[in-house]
Amino acid sequence: MNAAYGERAQRTKGRRGVLRILSVVAASWFATGRRSALADTEPKIVRILALGDSLTAGFGLPHAEGFVAKLQAALDKAGARAVVLDAGVSGDTSADGLARLEWALGDHPDAAIVELGANDGLRGLPPDGMERNLTAILDRLAAKHLPVLLAGMYAPPNLGQSYFGSFRAVFERLSRRPGLLFYPFFLDGVAGNHALNQGDGIHPNPRGVDIIVAGILPDVLKLVAEARRAG
Q1: Cα–Cα distance between 122 and 55 in angstroms, integer?
Q2: Residues 6+ apart with CB under 8 A from 189
Q3: Spelled out in words, what is the top-level CATH class assigned to the domain 45-230?
Q4: Proportion of the chain in helix, strand, coil states, percent, rounded to 5
Q5: CB 154 within 8 A of CB 118
Q6: From 40, 162, 194, 200, the catalytic residue
Q7: What's the pTM?
Q8: What is the spatial distance between Cα 166 and Cα 152, in angstroms, rounded to a whole number?
Q9: CB distance 231 to 46 below 8 Å
Q10: Is-contact 120 130, C-beta < 8 A?
Q11: How far apart are the first and last CA of the chain?
C-alpha cells in the first residue's frame, strides 16, 4: 500500500511539474505577445534628413550646442519619436546641396528639412540659379515621396533692395508648391541681434540656436506627422 501511495505521489508531483512548466511557457508567450502588440501600436521612428549649410552644421559651436543636437533634444522632449540625420556642411551653396543630395538620401530618410541659400546670398550668386537648384532638390525629394519642410532665407541687406527682393521672391514662389511645409526665415528672431550671434555676426550662438529651434519646432512636428501618415 505504501508503494502504491508512493507511485501516486510521484505521478502527482510529475503532473504538477509539467503544469508549472506549461504555466511558465504560457506566461512567457503572453508577455512576448504583449510586447509585440505594444510595439505594433507605437508610432514608427521618423528619420528626418537635415540638408543644409553651416547654420544646420552648427559652425563654431560644440556639437551639443548646434541646431541638429538641440532640435533632436526638443523632439525627444515632445515625445515625437524622430531622429535627425545631420547633413549640414559649412560653406555649402544651393548648388553644393544639390550635388550631394543623392549621397545624403543614402541614409533612407522619411522626411527632409531643406535649409540652403544663405551662402548664395553671402556670395551674391544669381537668385535664379538658386531657384533652379532648390527646385531640383525639392523635385527629387518629391519623387521619393518625402514630406519636406523648406526653411526660407533672406539675402544680406547690403547687396541692395533689388537683389534682396529677387532673393526673397525665390522662396515665396517655392513656398507655393503643393504639400510643402514652409518656414519663412530660418534665422527669425536671431539675425542682426549681436547678443544671439557669434563674433562674425552671421552664425548663431547657443542662445540663438535655442530661439531657432523653438521657432521651427512646431513645423518640424507637423513634418513628423506627415511622414508618419505617408509611411
Answers
A1: 13
A2: 196, 211, 212, 215
A3: alpha beta
A4: 60, 10, 30
A5: no
A6: 200
A7: 0.83
A8: 13
A9: yes
A10: yes
A11: 71
Instruction: Choose, from 53, 175, 203, 219, the residue flagged as catalytic.
Output: 203
**Which whole number is the average pLDDT over 57-83?**
98
Q: Indicate the domain borders of the chain.
A: 1-42, 45-230
Average pLDDT on 177-192 reads 98
Copy the grid coordinates of residue 165: 527682393
pLDDT digits (tens, 9 = 90+) for 71-128: 999 999 999 999 999 999 999 999 999 999 999 999 999 999 999 999 999 999 999 9
1 pLDDT tier (thresholds 50, 70, 90) = very low
- Please state the rounded mean pLDDT for residues 171-185: 98
Q: Which of 153, 156, 110, 161 is nearest to 133 (CA)?
A: 153
| 54 among known catalytic residues | yes
Tell me the C-alpha distance between 224 and 72, whole Å. 12
* pLDDT computed for residue 129 by the predictor: 98
Among candidate residues 28, 53, 54, 175, the one labeled active-site is: 54
Q: Which three cell numbers stand for residue 95?
A: 548648388
